[in-house]
Specification:
By secondary structure, the protein is mainly α. The chain contains 7 helices and 5 strands. The radius of gyration is 20 Å and the shape is globular.
Length: 193
């Protein structure tokens, strides 16, 4: 996981999933390359008896090191625990590194048919440690599925989150707003008021 640990990005359920992951994949480790502003996940790791080699809180980590970690990881799991859904920059970077991403956002967040659970992302209920563990164990033990998710995630970012695509969608959005405004005011030409 990458990103500051705080109330809107709290990996406590990810930490709670680790004992279940370790039952099936004893060599697994959870690395959190994140500044820790919320101590709950650290406390839960201690309560569960997880060692520092099983759950590592690295604190603030230079970007170059984060990219190295992403390139060598079997998965990148992170999600927003606040009121809004987002993929996040770190998850997009992981996808570009062909590291499978585990998240809990809505499948249609970027439009119908773009994010596809089991093809370019692993979507799950992030409040359920058993579901988190099952997804992580599968990524750790099924190399073919891990590669499929990694290449699918990279393809998703390159096809749907490139600047040409984003600029085109913004242009369409503004054109629609201007058209609606003209229809609503009877205005047929001119600029913004």
């Amino acid at each position: 996981m990458v990103g500051h640990i705080h109330p809107f990005r709290n990996p406590v359920q990810l930490v709670r999933a680790m004992p279940l992951v370790l039952e099936k994949a004893p060599e697994a480790r959870l690395v959190l390359a994140s500044r820790v502003d919320l101590q709950e996940p650290v406390g839960v790791a201690r309560q569960l008896g997880l060692t520092e080699s099983q759950v590592q809180f690295l604190g603030g980590t230079p970007h170059e090191r984060v990219v190295e970690l992403m390139k060598t990881s079997h998965a990148h799991a992170s999600w927003v625990t606040g009121p809004y859904a987002a993929l996040g920059t770190a998850a997009m970077e992981a996808m570009l590194c062909e590291t499978p991403v585990v998240n809990d956002l809505p499948e249609n967040l970027f439009g119908e048919g773009t994010l596809r659970d089991g093809e370019n992302i692993v979507l799950l209920n992030s409040r359920e440690p058993c579901l988190i563990a099952a997804a992580l164990v599968r990524l750790l033990t099924d190399g073919a599925w891990q590669r499929k998710m990694g290449t699918g995630g990279r393809r998703f970012v390159l096809e749907h989150l490139n600047w040409d695509k984003i600029a085109g969608k913004m242009e369409q959005f503004y054109a629609r707003i201007l058209a609606e405004r003209r229809q609503g005011t009877g205005q047929t030409t001119g600029g913004l008021r």
